Amino acid sequence: MKRQIIMLGIALAMPITTSACSRGDVDTSGEAKPAQEDQAAPSGGEATSAQSPDEIAKARNLSPADVSAALKTYMPSGRHDEYVQFASSGHGGQVLAIGLPSMRLLKMIATFSPEPWQGYGYGAKSTMDTLNGGNAGDKELRWADDHHPALSETAGDYDGQFLFIGDKANARVAVIDLRDFETKQIVKNPISNIDHGGMFVTPDTEWVVEGGQYAMPLGGGYAPMEDYKEKYRGHITFWKFDRAAGRIDMAKSFAMEVPPYWQDLCDSGKKGSTGWVFCNSINTELATGKADKDGVNFESGVSQNDMDFLHVVNLKKAEELVAAGKTTEINGFNVLPLDTAAAEGALYFIPEPKSPHGADVTPGGEYIVVGGKLDQNATVYSFQKIQDAIAAGGLDKDDYGVPIIPFDKAMEAQVQLGLGPLHTQFDDKGFAYTSLFLDSAVAKWSLGGDYRKDGLEPWKLVTKTPVQYNIGHLATAEGDTVSPDGHYLVAMNKWAIDRFQNVGPLVPQNFQLLDLDQPEPDKMPVIYDAPIGVGEPHYAQIIKADKLKGWEKYPEIGWDTDKMAKDPDAPLTGTERVERDGNKVTIYMTAIRSHFTPERIEVNVGDEVTLKITNVEQTYDATHGFAVPIYNLNLSLEPGETQTVEFTADRAGVYPFYCTEFCSALHLEMVGYLLVKDTPAAQ
Ligand code: CUK
Ligand code: CUA
After folding, report:
1. Which ligand 1 atom lies nearest to the CA of residue 357?
2. Which of 6, 81, 488, 500 would you label with 482, given CA atoms 20 to 30 Å apart?
3. What's the order of all strands across the beta sheet hosting 198-201?
């Protein structure tokens, strides 16, 4: 058994290698292989002057399937996509908004990292405040590994108002307001240095759930790894979301202390299971890594046990315990202690097989599907059976006192899908779709229970589509809500190898669009390959585009994008001026096509300058930039927006500032001069 684990471990780490990897006793026949040189995909075809569809298809070497794929995804100029996919960009630290089915990149929303086009992190006060809100004390964090976006929900359906995204690298959460698609808040988890970036909301978005990952002493202090079992801990953090304020409320949030297993991915209960949260975990072995030549490395140490624990959290109960004051404080943050959670029925475990990954609740909330990276099955748990087992009582406990629900008391079905099942999404016809990492495929399978009114055999594999290559997450349209749409599935593949023109050894990610609207249920062809030049994306959610109600311009001129209200001190047309108080200079400036007012600013070296600037335009898309060379200042001002920058004029010289958006025929003339005189500032 051990040998198998190690072999699969190799397969997992080296998903594509075939010759270098001895096969042992493991079936790796499903391994993805890139097309060989002699069987490489045909080129896209030559440019052709042919005009009829048949002639074009012939000239470009397109099969009938290629032509239908093109017709299903092509979006004529000016026509809008039906869906928008919000995808993480992984350690790119931003969020991608992609139109479906065209797969056109609409925006990369600046989130955890500075982004010049959006004027994010280059002096604009609201953006600096947002980024600095995510600092860890004096450590300025300017990148993230964002994994899981989570759209806000009302009654379990996406409502198009907010988007949350978790940063695995630094245990942070960002809040994006979908009125202007701007990041409004970043919160740093005060008790942990790292998490999984897993982010899931409860059905009415009262809570944003952050799953932990690698255990550490909570609070961030030091403890030797020899004390792992006693001093290291995991956490699941529940961030309270204040929808009216559009912000996470740190004071009302709390974490649940859990054993130092590595919590992984969570999902919230829905409908009947609302109020419960499910998180898979790995490393119930309590592996601590290879410290010397005789040690066991994490890769095999974490893969010893046949079962890890699905964490089952009674969130309603946890809320009661927190309200009753049964918490401790770590770094000023409410923490529900493990022994309290375990003793009071807020936390249960259920064994889950073989290197589990993913926990996905079915649309009706009846079942929880867990993948197993080293398993061939998706394991399905029944929420009702879990409740029955809890009610029956008499449960054994793990070493930390957490009651364990026996596997066979909670399990509803195991569905054999193939190698390396990870994540599962759903459609509107009672089917589930699971990514198979080792198989490089998407598996479609039938749910059971009330989902099966069509006479199809329940809990059965229906079909598989190979993807290129080694898929991580997948997303179907609204596929993790109470009412999935079906239609489209995006496979978010970890490797692309030969699928695109070579751009050097760092290869684009490959998002593949699969068509779920085929007449035969056993067909779901790939109809588009979209190279993603930023990485590495993990999860994505796909929302019906008409649920998004983004603004075309800010509602009033002089808009403060942080407070989402008019700034009473905003410069407006006619109120532009320069005020001086000793060495403090305040400039009230406006921008309109094609000039700034004032356009000549004189200060003394050493002056402390506050510059407030309003784009007084009310025309859709009439954005102006404001860039000051050398001072590292760069703003983007959408119509109506007011921004503030503060800087010390510490270098004398002449600094022409200019508009960075080609806003009009006289855009080049949209310029001004910042003159920093070498006369020392008044004190
Ligand atoms: S995880 Cu990346 S493939 Cu963070 Cu959702 Cu599974
Ligand atoms: Cu404003 Cu160019």
Report:
1. 6
2. 81
3. 198-201, 207-211, 234-242, 247-258, 333-336, 328-330
